[in-house]
Amino acid sequence: MSKAEKLSQYRYPTLAEKYAFIDGYEQAEKDLALTIEDIRELYIFFTEVDIEIEFNKIDIETETLGYYQEVLNRFNKQKGE
C-alpha cells in the first residue's frame, strides 16, 4: 500500500474522494521529484556561489547553513521562472 493510500484511508470516507486524493498526492510527488536537469542546475549554482565567495562578492563561508541556503534560494528562484 502506498503512502497516499494509507493517508486516504483515514481522511476520506468515499471511494471517489480517496481516489481523487491518491491521484493528486501521487502527481504532487512526481512534480516535486528532482530531475537530472535539476541536479545539473544545482551543480551550476554551487559553482557560482563558490566563485562569488572566492572573489569576495558575497560574505558566506562554504559548507555552512547560509551557503546551502543561498544555493537553495537560487534554485527555487530559477524553478519559479
What does this entry look like structurally?
Helix content is 77%, strand content 0%. The two termini are 36 Å apart. It has 81 residues and is mostly helical. The longest helix has 19 residues, at 36-54. It contains four helices and no strands. It has two domains: 3-32, no CATH class; 36-80, no CATH class. The mean pLDDT is 92. The chain is elongated, with a radius of gyration of 19 Å.
Protein traits:
77% helix, 81 residues, elongated, 2 domains, mainly alpha
- Briefly note the structural class of the backbone: mainly alpha
Number of domains: 2
Q: What is the beta-strand fraction?
A: under 5%
Helix content: over 70%
Figure out the total of helices. 4
Return the string of H and E elements: HHHH
Main β sheet profile: none
Q: Unreliable segments (pLDDT under 50, ≥5 consecutive)?
A: none
Integer average pLDDT = 92
Q: How big is the Rg?
A: 19 Å
What is the number of E strands?
Answer: 0
Shape: elongated
